[in-house]
Amino acid sequence: MIPTKEDILNVKELVSPHVHNTPVLHSSAINKMVGCEVFFKCENFQRMGAFKMRGATNAMLQLTSEQRERGVTTHSSGNFAQAVALAAKSLGIKATIVMPANAPSVKKEAVEGYGAKIIICESTLEAREAGAQEVVDQTGATFIHPSNDIDVINGNSTAAQELFEDHPDLNSIFAPVGGGGLVAGTALATHHLSKAKTYGGEPSGADDAFQSLIAGYIIPPVNINTIADGLRTQLGDQNFPIIKELVEDIFLVEEDEIVAAMRLVWERMKIIIEPSSAVAFAALYKNRDLFKGQKVGIIVSGGNVDVTKLPF
Amino acid sequence: MIPTKEDILNVKELVSPHVHNTPVLHSSAINKMVGCEVFFKCENFQRMGAFKMRGATNAMLQLTSEQRERGVTTHSSGNFAQAVALAAKSLGIKATIVMPANAPSVKKEAVEGYGAKIIICESTLEAREAGAQEVVDQTGATFIHPSNDIDVINGNSTAAQELFEDHPDLNSIFAPVGGGGLVAGTALATHHLSKAKTYGGEPSGADDAFQSLIAGYIIPPVNINTIADGLRTQLGDQNFPIIKELVEDIFLVEEDEIVAAMRLVWERMKIIIEPSSAVAFAALYKNRDLFKGQKVGIIVSGGNVDVTKLPF
Which residue is catalytic, options B52, B107, B197, B295? Predict the structure, then answer.
């Protein structure tokens, strides 16, 4: 059930020509504050500004040529819409993206800019799913889920795979937890390629993965309230078994801790990270006493922020 | 009079162990918009967040051991204060920084954090110069000028030297023009190590270097009005001859062009650059028709911005 080392290495070979091997940055000021060596894997510098390019690309590369001809579809208001649109464009595949009416117009424009067809639907999960299903029914397009798809998860693992190539001796690695696709991919790479342990960071205001790990089964999020808009989603049956098996722990962080972590990284490292990415660093910072003297990797998931609407 | 190739190569060897060899980033989206390949030399990732670390370090490395024992001093409200403080700390030299009373408290704290002694003076150039002179008279400290000092200029040249190591085939290179120390150092490296031409970007609201190049002698700035706070200074007798000889042209940019360029780099490259750095890119962007198909380097001078007070 859980992808093997060979599986993820094969995916790495397949995906690498289509994505950036993003830089790993560090800061002596931050190391001093945290009390360990922190290595930031900068997926904010990835194509379209987020790690989601990796999973979307792999999902399409796994399609047969007949499937590719019929195209792909997804529903998303954010980064995954852009990832599918750009990956499809790069691979010469037709993409139809179902976007809720309340998606920011800048994101709609970006998706159109990549040449994808957009279908606007009501802003409910039901309407989004129905819209995507209609595309599948009418065109035979393959639906790609942003996080609960094993090809997407394997694609996401390539970020941590690159990080371990650069820094094979990491002791721990942190990823933010939203739909679970990134932390599951990160845990796969960590498990197969290192002796490190994988930790997740999750907002207290969307703590469904934390609760699910305790319960042992998937608990849907309730009363979601977090600035980390990329993490307002829930786990799925493809990624939860991996998380349950391979993620050491999930740490919760509060909203003010997310904003403070985001600001600290902006000011000290001079890089733009989105609130969801700050969650992973906030989780390390809050629990820094547990990681003293370690080498710790942080998957900076993305940098797509509206710079006119900052929380500081 | 103008430093030789051997001079700047020697400085590079001396300074390199004490500064970061900063990464060079690029963006296919930006290349497409500008119509040429643009390579951003990220001195915003330099120690203390700006290129000024390079010049300050070299100036101190050139001191005799007796001079080092007596310490160094400068007057500055901004990046150079931090650069001298941090370089002095790294080299075990005592630093006394004269800062105007109206300098942002965050910058005073940073200077103190590096262990330098601060003397607060009135917020006029006269008071600042008098304050620094008093330190020299009383302690025998060596005064280091932020831009009009040949050792500082040679130190600054190491940023472009590194850039040409990574990209020897650049056709043009842009630097912002304030006190003239960065563009002069950049022009030295470009002249001695490449076939490229050096261009300066300067705000219309502080166009003294542009006017000075036309006149052939130094014209002090009048009615300074620009968001690019690092560029509100004037040329000096050490850097102007180099600029006159080796800088191909200086392009003026308006305030809205500076802000737009800054925002474009933030949004597309996910890096934090200060308005002064945006001036160099804005100058290229405004004159992009002249550089079609070229490989162009941009010295991103720094990333020290108050993220709570953005112009967008």
Answer: B52
Dihedral angle, C-alpha A109, A113, A117, A123, nearest 10 °: -20
Q: Measure the CA–CA gap between A125 and B158, rounded to whole angstroms.
A: 55
ipTM over the 0.85 cut-off? yes
Whole-prediction pTM value? Answer: 0.95
- What is the strand order of the sheet B95-100 is part of? B117-121, B95-100, B72-75, B142-143
Is position A52 annotated as part of the catalytic site? yes
Provide the pLDDT for residue B246: 98
Of the candidates A152, A251, A137, A253, the one whose C-alpha atom is nearest the C-alpha of residue A204 is: A253
Amino acid at A235: L
Sheet hosting strand B37-42, strand order edge to edge? B24-25, B37-42, B295-300, B172-176, B197-203, B247-253
Q: Look at the block and give the residue holding tokens 């305790």.
A: A214
What's residue B230's pLDDT?
A: 87
Token pair in block for residue B265: 């780099």
pLDDT tens for B36-80 read 999 999 999 999 999 999 999 999 999 999 999 999 999 998 899
Q: How many distinct helices (H) and strands (E) make up chain B?
A: 13, 10
Q: Across the beta sheet with A142-143, what order do the strands follow?
A: A117-121, A95-100, A72-75, A142-143
| Residue B310 to residue A312, Cβ atoms within 8 A | no
Point out which residues pair with B166 in neighbouring strands: none
Q: B128: distance to nearest CA of chain A, Å? A: 28
